[in-house]
Design a protein that fits this description.
The protein has 71 residues and is α+β, with helices and mostly antiparallel strands. It contains 1 helix and 3 strands; from the N terminus they run αβββ.
Length: 71
């Protein structure tokens, strides 16, 4: 049986710190902190639930981050 892969380490970052920021500023800050993928989504978007290490998701309304989560 193949070994279970070890996911890469993620930045030690608090997703709540992005709430209230402008979408562009939040994305720039996330990339500076080491996130490899940053995804901005409108409220109520239908998305798949797969977890991607190194990805940070933003829910954005009127160009402001209203929710943020890892994966």
């Amino acid at each position: 049986m193949a070994p279970i892969p070890t996911p890469p380490e993620q930045p030690d970052d608090a997703p709540d710190s992005y709430v209230g920021l402008g979408a562009h500023a939040a994305e720039q800050q996330a990339r500076e902190r080491g996130w490899t993928t940053v995804r901005a989504l409108p409220p109520g978007s239908i998305i798949t639930m797969e977890y991607v290490a190194g990805r940070l998701n933003f829910e954005v309304r009127d160009d402001v981050v209203i929710r943020c989560w890892k994966g």
